[in-house]
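Homework help thread (please don't just give me the answer)

Our assignment gives two proteins as sequence + structure token strings and asks us to describe the second one. The first is just a warm-up. Here they are:
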Amino acid sequence: MQQYIVTGMTCAACSARVEKAVSRVAGVSSCAVNLLTGTLRVEGTADEAAIRHAVEQAGYGMRENRPSAPANRESRVLKDEETPRLRLRLVSSLVFLLALMYISMGHTMWGWRLPAALESNPVALALLELLLTVPVLVINQRFFVSGFRGLLHRAPNMDTLVALGASAAFLYSTYLLFPMTAAQAAGDTMGAMHALHGLYFESAAMILTLITLGKMLESHAKGKTANALKSLLSLSPVSARVECAGEEVTLPVEEVKRGDIFLVRPGEKIPVDGVILSGTAAVDESALTGESIPVDKVAGDTVSAGTVNRSGALRCEASRVGEDTTLAQIIRMVEDAAATKAPIAKIADRVSGVFVPVVTAIALLTTVIWLLVGQGFGYALARGISVLVISCPCALGLATPVAIMVGNGVGARKGILFKNATALEVAGKTEIVVLDKTGTVTRGEPCVTDLLPADGVSEEELLACAYALEAQSEHPLARAVVREAEARNLTASPVTGFLVYPGNGLVGEVDSVPLAGGNLTYIRTKTEISEEIRRRADTLAGEGKTPLFFSRGDRLLGIIAVADTVKEDSPAAIATLKDMGLRVVLLTGDHPRTAEAVGRVAGVDEVIAGVLPDGKEEVIRHLQKTGKVAMVGDGINDAPALTAADIGIAIGAGTDVAIDAADIVLMNSRLTDVPAAIRLGRKTLANIRENLFWAFFYNTIGIPLAAGVFIPLWGWELNPMFAAAAMSLSSFCVVSNALRLNLLNPHREKRKRGKGTGAVPATVSSVPASEPPTPVTATPAPVTDLTGPEPLTPATRVSHTHTEKEKSVMTKTLKVDGMMCGHCEARVKRALEALPEVSSATASHESGSVTVTLSSPLSDDTLKEVIEKEGYTVL
């Protein structure tokens, strides 16, 4: 994708002309012109010279939009050069216009006093009006240069309409000077005075001045639409304190290289992305994430450019510099989104392409019709001029980009980044939200949820013994126990004779007393397990938790339950989505029982479990048959689904692959930002529709009014000066309406009860690995208590229609002993799927089985060998 700056565009007709010209260039697959930012985005193989030639042939200029460091871009974006120029033109024009209006309107209509020599000499008054009008024409010559150049290139624009209207008024008035002079020379002073009232010098000057006023207001308002980008650019540090040969040196931030050691004192901005080597600090990241509370940072943590060190001194190593920093990437994403075009803008583009020629034809037709019905040429010309100057293609061209720019800016301030305008529009049309489970709805790492000590054993005693054993292990479940023990400030006793039995458990000795930990099957070999303990373990397993049993000697110490728990904000975020009338689906490759437990706590409408990464894409396509789908994920396995969905939303803390595949990035990694992004999309889409309605309504009403259609009915007659005033304010009104989005807080919106509210039946679909993951309606499980431990409705198996090819696929089921958690399942699955003959594998530690789908014959001995190499026993 190439991006260029196009100069000389003044209205939607200009952008439509450029787009049309560039799209005809050989090698251009697609192109989009953004009137607000003056950018041209081109995709394809066409070279720059061919594109430049097409743009110049259309009557405009072009230069490459070269990337620069944020600090360098700041002056270009922050400095509003257009508004001061227009203000100077406006003030200069007003000086001559006020004098002109005093003579043409004040004296002739209201009898304001003039020198006696002028009052009795109408030709002198007319010449004075001419002399006062010419400077206004010269000051605003840009309208004529741009307008007539567009006409010569057969690309008329808004300036063409203004130039034609002002030129017609000025030339007609100049022509009337000749019969006026002849009448006064013949002694017909009254006839000359009457002709004075038919002059339109003041209309020509007023048209140009009022449209300059409108342009200035529009330019000022358009500058405000980029406030979010400006605030991001203002964050860019200009210098960094770097260690160089043992000394502290201050360098421009552009000269900092990856691997440099930089220092940050309290109150300073962090210059580049890096990793803390030493020191602790509270870092204010609100500018990037919208989170107002500073984040505590210690050695090993990462820091981002543009954030502020509120306390403590830091010594860091630069990891990403220049255009690679998080801040630079955010700025680039915001700029790219502003430069793209939303699909809803297509209707305005189609109208803008023919707008000016059609309006010019209407103006000529209006003049001719009024002449045919018997009106004088001056009267008919005034109607034609009114049509020319009231028509406003600018409002059409600005309706979409200004709303997109403001909406995108609001999102950036809240840590919600839209990669393009289409993402913002489609987010507002979302009907179904699909959530990945691990890392999105849940924390993504196991933690201790329950401590169930046996009779006569305290929680501290149970946890201390478990800590002593698990501290020696590297298993993810062991780390959960270790974290819980460290949080309680427990000390791990030294263990001797430590042994690991993969898939079963651990053994060791503390003070010559044997300790053991593991699954139910393994602990049964060490101690007696009562029926009550077994039921409690089954209850925990039914809640999606993994029960770990621990014993000392021949006595059971108790159970520690470990699970990937639901994030604190997930239930609230999902409730908000349902209040917005959205259907919420939990999509995961996890076991149906675990997925159902998470879905019940989170409060989703439907759970689809047991889906492989490639199967997630098929599920998304099935859901798209019922509405627009947004997919929310954070991992590599979510990338196909993020790409397939109508809108992909990536959690900012997720993998780079997921972020690249997504259309929206949530910098805060909070699920509550999902409803905020959709709400912002809805509000922006509504604002665009309001702007388009205003633009079309204004022209639909304004043009007939200016043409005099309502004169025979109600006597409504529009003077060209009032037509110019209306035209100058139309674009300003569109831009001002878009600025209202700045008042929106997408996280704070009054809830509206919709079809997603209340106790919604949740359905659970279990998708075996051997079958394509097409979700269908399953047995509903009512969600009445989103946090209580309810009995589970068994997950149903989804039925499918198999093709002959699918029927020939071989499926084998093996009984496997030793798997005790989801990580064991993943280990077995990964080992089996490494075999070329295995198309997929599904393991369940709860049922102790592995289902293998084969694409070609494979012996049982080979499968057994692979599984037992991982430390598990095939029965």
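The one we have to describe:
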Amino acid sequence: MADNNEWEKDRSGANNNQEDIEVALADDAEGVDDRRDIQELIEELTAEEQGEYRTGLRVMPLIPLRGLAVFPYMVLHFDIGREKSVSALEKAMVRDQIVFLAVQKDAETDLPTKEDLYEVGCVVKIKQMLKLPGDSIRVLVEGVSRGVIDEIVQEIPFFKVIVRQIDETDYDALPSGIEALMRTVLDNFESYIEVSGKLPQDMFASVASIEQPGRLADVITTHLDVRIESKQRVLEAFDPEERLNILNEILSKEIEILKIEQDIKEKVHSKINKSQKEYYLREQLRTIQEELGEDEQIGDEIKNWLDELEKLNVSEKIHKKIEKEIKRLSKIQPSSAEGGVIRTYVEWVFQLPWNKYSAGGIDIKGACDILDEDHYGLEKVKERIIEYLSVMELVETMKAPIICLVGPPGVGKTSIAKSIARAVGREFVRMSLGGVRDEAEIRGHRRTYIGAIPGRVINGMKEAGSMDPVFLFDEVDKIGADFRGDPASALLEVLDPEQNKEFTDHYLEFPFDLSKVLFITTANTLDTIPRPLLDRMEVIEVPGYTEEEKVQIAERYLVPKQMKEHGIQDEKIRMSEGAIRDIINYYTRESGVRGLEREIAGVFRKAARRVVEDRSEKKKTNISVRGGNIEKYLGKKRFRYDVIEAEQLVGTTTGLAWTIVGGTTLSIETTRIPGTGQLALTGQLGDVMKESARAGVSYIRSIADRLGIRKDFYKTDDMHIHIPEGATPKDGPSAGVTMCTAMISCLTGIPARQDVAMTGEITLRGTILPVGGIREKVLAAHRAGIRKVLLPKQNERDIDDIPLTVRRKMEFVLIGHADDALRHVLARMPKKRAAAGTGKAAAKKMAARQ
């Protein structure tokens, strides 16, 4: 090609920048990474000088391709629409119309990275571009040469890469081995054209005239209907002989597959002819049966369906729809594919619980007894549920509420939903939404799809057998979305009392009444639930259990249950309260009791083994599991029971945090280092937490004189704030007052009490704002042995939510300003720094204070 010849000019025409590039390359070989320098030097070259550069290194934009491989000498057009690809195209048009095309490994990746691209691609020249409707562009390009990505130097706003161009090997006289290989490839290509029937016969003549082996392999590969991975193998073969061998292998395999496909098509064609013959004979047989009156079975079935339809109390629109489908079935061959689809549809319709409701009303006292029987504690949760049930009993026409139970894992959200169903005497249906990404899971598939069925909502109604079951959507916060639709959006119609009276499944194609269904959803957090969906639900928080509640649950429910499941309820085995407390404190870290039940099961597994061994030796079993011997059953203690000592440390304070599995304590450490006023924040902190720390620094600067801190501390000292357990992400504003207090302790040198925990957001004026999760945070402080907690004044109302047994052991201090926290945490209050020029006496006095 003419353009390709221009790229291979002699190196002598390059300017001095090219010599600098070679020096950078030499340094690179000695271990010095000068890739950025190479890029900058190459960028300074003109387009013509870049083409003259003999090392083949060249900086150019990159466009990722999906399902398309481009070869040298190939002229083709393709459409691009992704923003990064359009930007790369515009950059190339402004410069020299040269761009690098690389194939994506996965065509479904919308935002590819370096790992998603093949390193070997094609350098092309843009010949023409045409803007199409919809912000896409059609580009006509001509392949120039192969290229290898040396380095990706830019990814935003488009890919920019350093490419090493690969020159094609041309032969003046072909070696006999390569010539023989070319003939073999041409023979196979001719066979491929004949077997596939997709390429014109005259194409072989044009391809056979190519004399160079590398170009022959490239041209043939472009015309093959093979997977992109196979074409990429040919593209990555730089040696012409190797390229021909790979192509020959691909052609041989494709010819074999095409011959097998041809055989299959011939067999299918013969079967179709046979099916047509059978259809003709069956039609004759059906006519004979009708004449003899023997075709009564199908007619009776259709008659029964029509009679059953008349008994259904449905709207006229639904009645006509079902009647139309039944009559269609009577007019077509029952054994046909369409007949099977219609039959399945009609059967589904009559299996739905039309106008069937649960008998009887709601026994409020009985509901209370059932909830108390199934769950210990959770008094506020039970109270709100009973309130809902009471209103439903008084107002028969009330639309059922959508209840969302939110709480940590293992606190009994799913079992509460089952208890509600038992309390109201309704059927219970559960649907797990964790990982659901297909909208059809909710709305069903249209009948145009093979094997279509209704969605899981309608399927659940069929299983319930009534129009008013308790329907649980479990893990609603873990619902996903992809190219198949957004299930959360489909749930909007299901969970909206104003819309679910006429919920339309894609399979049924008529509205179905869900307004009498008591929908319950569960979630671990509200943050990931879409706002429109959350707006349709009544949120009930299911808090974590205290240690006392866990002990009661274990003694009343978990221990008897596990003894029964392990078949040792009649043996003399006793688990003491001390053993249960040790399991809670040293073997589990959770807000619920799922892990506690698992550990208790582990104890009884070992006890079961002891029982079996004693029976084989005809011994009596007498096992006592106590706190002193619990390690015998569960091994070494896995967790440390953090009882914080009443010590005082400079620059270290104790904070409180909320996590998805409950509350926890945070030890915030601060130190000062001579520097330039930098603030370092470590421990995998989120953006909000970092902003809280900066707000604390600004507040300290504003009152430095009053605290006895040098005004220029932010210029002469670096501050480093670290929160241990760096592998755990932390975020939120509630540690603001804790970090501020730790920094003041560090800057003043006054020790801080470690047995006082605090929480609250701090402003630039030192005001303490309210935060959430007070119950869980206080329970965490109680577990850690802390008995004094500082809370924002506006969180006073949340103290009532803390269990009474915990409140009696704790001292709560309400703070409205950072100064209030300093009084309770620091060993002494900071004193105002002496003003300059007050004399030697003042200086000595100040030194004595410090």
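TA reply:
I won't write it for you, but here's a hint about the kind of observation we're looking for: DSSP finds 32 helices and 26 strands in the chain.
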